[in-house]
Amino acid sequence: xxxxxxxxxxxxxxxxxxxxxxxxxxxxxxxxxxxxxxxxxxxxxxxxxxxxxxxxxxxxxxxxxxxxxxxxxxxxxxxxxxxxxxxxxxxxxxxxxxxxxxxxxxxxxxxxxxxxxxxxxxxxxxxxxxxxxxxxxxxxxxxxxxxxxxxxxxxxxxxxxxxxxxxxxxxxxxxxxxxxxxxxxxxxxxxxxxxxxxxxxxxxxxxx
Length: 208
Prior knowledge:
alpha/beta; Rossmann fold; 6 helices
């Protein structure tokens, strides 16, 4: 999952011409809200691309949001959009260009949100690196919100193979011993061209 690959993907397409695009009113911000963190919480959208999650968070009063992605093009689109729409309220949006498997967030955040990044990691060493980055970047007592393709979801995405999970296997891949499982569920994402993709979502709490 190297930077040049994803930079080509984002630079070669319009922001809403990728399968994972969600408009503001459809993004899964409720998975953040279910953690119960206050609006002062530090939240990271990992592998954010040009996602409108940051818009949804800002509109609900959250103000300390880190965006992490390998694509500078996708990041710039997201930052330009929220600064134009939210002005001073977007001053707490912190863009970070980097690979989730090798970038440690500092300071650690209260909520780690990952929709459709983890399932691109198909090699054991990459999964282990992700888990290490997650532990380093999430404070004790914080929450991990992770969504991947379900077992009956697509086998590839954007030309790459993916790993598919149900809730138990996803929690296990993230190191089950490290988490309190708060919520698991199956969700459906509808792509911009009306294809339905089943997802597995988990909300986990890291013990104090």
